[in-house]
Amino acid sequence: MVFRRSIYKSPAQLRLMVEPGLATAASLDAVAAAIEPGVSTLTLDALAERAIVERGARPNFTLEQGYDHTICASVNDDVVHGIPGDRLLVPGDIVSIDSGAILNGWNGDAARTFVLPDPARRDVFDERLTLSEVTEQSLWRGIARLVTARHLNEVGEAIEDYIVSQGDYGILTDYVGHGIGRSMHEAPPVFNYRVSAKGPEVKPGLVVAIEPMVVLGDPETYVRDDGWTVATEDGSAAAHWEHSVAVHADGIWVLTAADGGAAGLAPFGITPVPIP
Asked: FRET partner for 257 with CA separation of 20 to 30 A, picked from 20, 83, 110, 140?
């Protein structure tokens, strides 16, 4: 007989996911404070690692076989899984930073996109900044839908509807969100677009990492020779935003936001509730 682990966590397990979520958020805060032209992605990696360790956690990306860094740093036409290195960032770069932490066997996972100001190419900067803002807002619409959704795949509907309403953007379909808990990547998949299936029921104990990946051009991608970095085939710029979110008996809580998602959810009239 095969026993399958439930995708739903107990209240006690949800409480154990709070600290790794906060450690993940701290690592991205450290990146946000330091990212600027002239800084290498490897420097950002070290700062993220320090922030995680200072909270008593460990980077969980290093637990992935063959990956040796705390963050993924994806620049311009790299969408996800970019490897930090000596490359120095320059004005106008759009940089997606994905990070995660593990503490007491429980995981956090989140991503943010940064656009470095470029007065010499204001049009490029504005276009990329709008791309990042559309991607971030689509994430918050997906999170907000969890409050009323009966089934998980309604999240993808909310994300796609918003992105389509904002312009001619490409939504990656080969890479989606996921459940998270004892493992960084668990069932169920979390789509960023409409699918025919309803998905699992949204009820207390569900914890998912929602992560839309959006590009300025065609969503077709390939993996670079390093075996990790996913880049757009047409060379168009990309953005990636992600949060780990818990559904509990009293509401929802964004585990990888220091305020539980209060600022992001306020425009929707939603107040996140701390996990009791």
From this structure: 83
Residue linked to tokens 């120095």: 88
User: Residue 2 domain-assigned?
Assistant: no
DSSP tally for the chain: helices H, then strands E:
6, 15
Query: Residues near 253 by Cβ (< 8 Å), separated by ≥ 6?
Result: 18, 245, 246, 260, 261, 272, 273, 274, 275
Can the peptide bond before residue 188 be classed as cis, meaning omega within 30 degrees of 0? yes
HSE, CB side, 13 Å, CA atoms: give it for residue 31: 34
Q: What is the CATH number of the domain that holds 34?
A: 3.90.230.10
Structure tokens at 87: 């490359």
Domain-embedded: residue 273: no
Which domain does 230 fall in, by range?
Answer: 11-266
Q: Which pTM was predicted?
A: 0.97
60 with 101: CB under 8 angstroms?
Answer: yes
CB 143 within 8 A of CB 241: no
- pLDDT score for 64: 84
Q: Which of 123, 135, 178 is nearest to 159 (CA)?
A: 135
**N residues, the chain:** 276
Number of domains, the chain = 1
Q: What is the pLDDT of residues 203-256, one digit of tens each?
A: 999 999 999 999 999 999 999 999 999 999 999 999 999 999 999 999 999 999
Task: Dump strand ranges (E) for 30-167.
Answer: 58-59, 71-75, 78-80, 94-103, 106-115
Cβ atoms of residues 209 and 159 within 8 Å: no
